[in-house]
Structures are given as structure tokens and as C-alpha cells.
From TrEMBL:
Key words, A-Z: Membrane, Transmembrane, Transmembrane helix
Protein name: Protein NRT1/ PTR FAMILY 2.10-like
Coiled coil: none
Membrane-spanning parts: 92-112, 136-155, 184-203, 209-235, 370-393, 413-434, 498-521, 541-559
A single cellular component GO annotation: membrane
UniProt source species: Cucurbita moschata (Winter crookneck squash)
Lineage of producing organism: Eukaryota, Viridiplantae, Streptophyta, Embryophyta, Tracheophyta
Record's subcellular location: Membrane
Keyword Membrane: yes
Domain of life assignment: Eukaryota
Family statement drawn from the similarity comment of this UniProt entry: Belongs to the major facilitator superfamily. Proton-dependent oligopeptide transporter (POT/PTR) (TC 2.A.17) family.
Encoding gene (name): LOC111429868
Length: 590
């Protein structure tokens, strides 16, 4: 049977697509169990630190901010090692084992009594007090968290791309395979989050922490088993070398030629060699960051190879390389605005748990029967808000906007980010008002029960936290998803794995910044705003402060957006050009 060139160019491409179909169950199964394991371990970790290790709220919150920040920041190193040395298969293999070991260590801290402090009031020696963990207990705990950080650094930037590697995007069947994989990928993500924030969190808080942590560890073991079982059939692409080398060459060459005068006619007089095997799209000349253009000035000392390339790439770079570096530099201010934005989303993952713990979490069935919702499970409403809005936005809002603006996406990516930032400001303001209501009812109409080291339970239903959690999910549907597409589009093709890690690095710095803000506010207010008992503090003031900072950040973002020029065009951020969407972009964004 004759094969069409449009469908399969050669035997190797047919083999890639065939492998993709057979590898899909292994890859998707691995992704499902990996997410169940990692989210099941980390989603309720804040409560674990306060309940089992008897950490103070401020200490546990700071530690969690550092942990989440480190897991996200480590993706940059993971992406670098993957692209430069190991490749995606080996990086995922090493990282999966590290994550499994980390989960086993955390499970041991809950299972073996000597690895965590005794229960409050257990034994006459404690005198009813809550003993603090010993240094070696903390060290063992941090060892487990460190292994999880190493695992996340390798898994997060590689797992999505590794699945897509199994298919050839240049063939019709390969495109269908990639589309199917991305659909399953995000389905498993949603499925894992729902299971983790409901069933696993319930087991952890209501049954046993030992079982609650052992279940995610076992699921991670299944993930590793499925991953390595499919090794014989995977497409394993070799690393292409460090993408930072070209960036460093441009910076070094521009520095060496900094004293040279700029040519009168920029574009024709600059070195413009493009290798035939380059995977990057050709970029037009731009006038921004003109000092970098000096890296492409040809001098009498410059020599060339037979193929037209520079003999010394550290003294002469092409205009293509210069424009690629400009793409990276232009993204950084926008990325900086995203760091402050994520401070708002961080608050809805940390202090909102403590708000729920000091609110009425009972869900009544009849007059006497009720179910108490675990505090960490309330964050599921963030995900619900996000997942409900995305198809509505894609099927109803975007077509309507497209008819008005004549843009493929309805509005530009930077406009989408801005809308999400506005919603984040409103979210933090509403959060402050809800906290005022919760605190007032806790002081005037508390429930009879208490929560151990914390104060009285407010008679306000914890369901009042749902609007702010849903709103922050809506905000993420605009800003976070737009950021993913923005980094994917604006980075050079050979740096897209690094671009993918930019979102995680931004989250990391947001976690660090949030932890720093909490520590500073706690210190400056001598604990009056953020005490152990929220009823005695003013968490609402802290939320108002974050809302104000988000408003300042929005102003900064608007200025950066007006200045920004999209890759491949001379237009500014308000005039985004629509490029043909790849299967990746179609799937990730909507």
C-alpha cells in the first residue's frame, strides 16, 4: 500500500507515530499515578507540619513557602540538565526515583514514633504540653522534602514534553496522537487533584497520617513501575546541548565590541548567517536593546568558516542570535510582574487553610448528622473554578471576542494576563472582608469546640471561603494559562523547555517573596497581625496589604505591556500578531 508523504515521510516517522500509540498507556498511566502521589503528599503538608510536628503556624507557613518555592525553582536546573546532559527519559527516571524516596521518608516520619514528636499530652513526661520536634527529627523531615524537591525539578519541566516526544508533529497521525496525549494529560491532572484534595486528604486527617502518606507513596511506586515498564518502546531524544551557550556568546561578543560605533545602516551591515540545521524561526531586526547589536558587527579581525559561520562564535554572533537574546530579555519584565501576581494565589493555598480550621466546616445531613470537610480540601474550589471557566471561555467568550477584535484568541495574551491580575486584586479584597466576618463571629458567637493550640471556632460557615477560592481559580484561568502560552511563543524554539520552567521559577520566587512578607509583617507587628490564633490577629489587614501591592503591580504590568514587542514583529503588546497555533498551544491554552 502506497504511503502518502503528507502522512508519513519515511520509515522512521512511521515508527515514531507507531511508538507513540503504544507508549501512550505507559506515559499517561505514569502521569496519573505520579500526580496522585505528589499532590497527595503535598496538598495537606501544611496541616501535617502543625498537627504532627507541632510547628507554629508562622513556622509551618514559612517552611511551606520555602518548600513550594524550591520545588518550582528547581525546575530551571532540571530543564538545564535535561537539555544539556541527560535527555528527558533519564531525567524523568532519576527524578521519579527521588520523588518515591522522598515520599517513603515522609511516610516513615508519620509511621515511626521516634521520627516525630509525641502526641500532645501523651505520657506523663509531657505534662499535657506539645513537645517541639528534635533537631534530628527536623533533619529527617527536611531530607524527605529535599528528595521531593529534586524529584519535582526533573519531573515538572520534562513530563509533558516527554509524552509529546513519542509522536511526530510533522505527520497527520502524529498530530492526532499529540492532541490525544495533551487531552489525557490535563484530564489526569484534574483527576489527580480531585482525588488528592478529597479522598487522600480525608484519610490523612480523619483516619491516619501514616496511611494517608503511605497511599501516595504506593501510587508513586506504581508510577515508577509503569514508567520503566515502557522503556523498551519509548522514543528517547538525545540532548541538544545547552541553550544558554548562544546567549552567553552574544553577551560576551557585545561586551568585547562595546567600544565600536554603531553602524549607520543597522540591518545590512551586520552578520546575518543562519545555520541550515537551526530549528529556530527567523526573526526580523528590532531596534530595542541596540547595544546587543554590536555582537553582530563584522570587524577586519573576524574570520569565517567555509559554511559562512563565524570562526570564533565568542567574538561574532549573527543578528538571529542577537534577536533571540532580545526575546529572552524582553520577557523578563513581564515575568517579574507575574512573580508579584502569584503572591495572591499563594495566600489562597496557605492561610486559607488556617481560616478553614477556625471556621465551621460541618456539612449537615438532616438535623443531627453532618460531615466535617477537611480544611485542605477547600482549595479544590480553586481548581473547580478554573476547570469550569476554561471550556466556557473557549466555546462562548472567545468566539464572541473574535468577532469584535478579529483576533484568533479574542484578546492578546498580555490582555488576558491583565484581566487575571485585576481579578486577583478583587479576590484579596474579598478575602479580607470574609476574614473580618469570620473573626468577628469567632469573638462574639463562637462554637463550643476548640482546635487544641488554636483559638475558638467561628460560627461562620467555611463555605464563605468558596467565593474567594473560586475567584482565584478564575484569575489563574486567565493569567497562568496565558503565561504558559506566552513563554512558549516568545522563547526561541531551542529554549522552550527553559521557557516552560519560567512559570515554575516565577512561582518559586513568589513563594519566597510570600514567605519573606509573612516573616517581615509578623516581625514588624510583633505577631499582632499573624499570630497562632487568627482570632487574636488581623489577617484581614494583611490581605488588604496584599491587595494594594497587587494593584501597584498591575500598574507596573500595564507599563511593561505597552513597551513589549512580540517575537517576530515590531508591534507592541497592545498589537499582538496572531501566529499559527501549534497543537501544544491549542491544547494548553484552551
Amino acid at each position: 500500500m502506497e504511503r502518502n508523504n503528507e502522512d508519513v515521510h519515511n520509515l522512521d516517522e512511521a515508527k515514531v507515530n507507531y511508538k507513540g500509540v503504544k507508549a501512550l498507556p505507559f506515559v499517561v498511566g505514569n502521569e496519573t499515578f505520579e500526580k496522585l502521589g505528589t499532590t497527595g503528599t503535598s496538598s495537606n503538608l501544611l496541616v501535617y507540619l502543625t498537627d504532627v510536628f507541632h510547628m507554629k503556624t508562622i513556622t509551618a507557613t514559612t517552611l511551606m513557602n520555602i518548600f513550594h518555592g524550591s520545588t518550582n525553582f528547581s525546575t530551571l536546573f532540571g530543564a538545564f540538565l535535561c537539555d544539556t546532559y541527560f535527555g528527558r527519559y533519564k531525567t524523568l527516571g532519576y527524578a521519579s526515583i527521588a520523588s518515591l524516596m522522598g515520599m517513603v521518608v515522609l511516610t516513615l516520619t508519620a509511621t515511626i514514633e521516634k521520627l516525630h514528636p509525641p502526641d500532645c499530652g501523651k505520657g506523663s513526661a509531657t505534662g499535657g504540653a506539645c513537645l517541639e520536634p528534635t533537631p534530628w527529627q527536623i533533619a529527617f523531615l527536611l531530607f524527605g522534602l529535599g528528595l521531593l524537591i529534586i524529584g519535582a525539578g526533573g519531573i515538572r519541566p520534562c513530563n509533558l514534553a516527554f509524552g509529546a516526544d513519542q509522536f511526530n508533529p510533522n505527520t497527520a497521525s502524529g498530530k492526532l496522537g499529540i492532541n490525544s496525549f495533551f487531552n489525557w494529560y490535563y484530564f489526569t491532572f484534574t483527576f489527580a487533584m480531585i482525588i488528592s484534595l478529597t479522598i487522600i486528604v480525608y484519610v490523612q486527617t480523619e483516619v491516619s497520617w501514616a496511611w494517608g502518606l503511605a497511599i501516595p507513596a504506593f501510587l508513586m511506586f506504581l508510577s515508577c513501575a509503569l514508567f520503566f515498564m515502557g522503556s523498551w518502546i519509548y522514543v528517547k531524544l538525545e540532548p541538544e546541548g545547552s541553550p544558554f551557550t548562544s546567549v552567553m556568546r552574544v553577551l560576551v561578543a557585545a561586551l568585547k565590541k562595546r567600544r565600536l560605533p554603531s553602524p549607520d545602516q543597522q540591518w545590512p551591515s551586520l552578520f546575518n548567517h543562519i545555520p541550515s540545521n537551526s530549528i529556530n524561526s527567523k526573526l526580523p531586526y528590532t531596534d530595542q536593546f541596540s547595544f546587543l547589536n554590536k555582537a553582530a558587527i563584522i570587524t577586519p579581525e573576524d574570520k569565517f568558516k567555509s559554511d559562512g559561520s563565524a570562526d570564533d562564535p565568542w567574538t561574532l554572533c549573527s543578528t538571529q542570535q542577537v534577536e533571540e537574546v532580545k526575546c529572552l530579555v524582553r520577557v523578563i519584565p513581564i515575568w517579574g510582574a507575574a512573580i508579584m501576581y502569584h503572591v495572591a494565589t499563594t495566600q489562597q493555598q496557605t492561610y486559607v487553610v488556617f481560616q478553614a480550621l477556625q471556621s465551621d466546616r460541618r456539612l449537615f445531613f438532616g438535623n443531627t448528622h453532618y460531615f466535617k470537610i477537611p480544611a485542605a480540601s477547600y482549595t479544590i474550589f480553586t481548581m473547580i473554578g478554573l476547570t469550569i471557566w476554561i471550556p466556557f471561555y473557549d466555546r462562548i467568550v472567545v468566539p464572541s471576542l473574535r468577532r469584535i477584535t478579529a483576533r484568533e484568541g479574542g484578546i492578546t495574551l498580555l490582555q488576558k494576563m491583565g484581566i487575571g491580575m485585576v481579578i486577583a486584586i478583587v479576590t484579596m479584597f474579598i478575602s479580607a472582608l470574609v476574614e473580618q466576618k469570620r473573626r468577628n463571629l469567632a469573638l462574639t458567637q463562637p462554637l463550643c469546640e476548640e482546635t487544641g493550640r488554636r483559638g475558638a471556632i467561628s460560627s461562620m460557615s467555611a463555605l464563605w471561603l468558596v467565593p474567594q477560592l473560586t475567584l482565584i481559580g478564575l484569575s489563574e484561568a486567565f493569567t497562568v494559562i496565558a503565561q504558559v502560552e506566552f513563554y512558549y511563543k516568545e522563547f526561541p524554539e531551542n529554549m522552550r523547555s527553559i521557557g516552560g520552567s519560567f512559570s515554575f521559577v516565577g512561582l518559586a520566587l513568589s513563594n519566597y517573596l510570600s514567605g519573606f512578607m509573612v516573616t517581615v509583617v509578623h516581625s514588624l507587628t510583633t505577631g499582632n497581625w499573624l499570630p497562632e490564633d487568627l482570632n487574636e490577629g488581623r489577617l484581614d489587614y494583611f490581605y488588604f496589604m496584599v491587595s494594594g501591592l497587587e494593584a501597584v503591580n498591575l500598574g507596573y504590568f500595564v507599563l511593561c505591556s505597552k513597551w513589549y514587542k512580540y517575537k517576530g514583529s515590531g508591534s507592541h503588546g497592545v498589537d499582538e500578531m496572531d501566529f499559527g497555533k501549534t497543537e501544544f498551544e491549542k491544547t494548553v491554552v484552551y
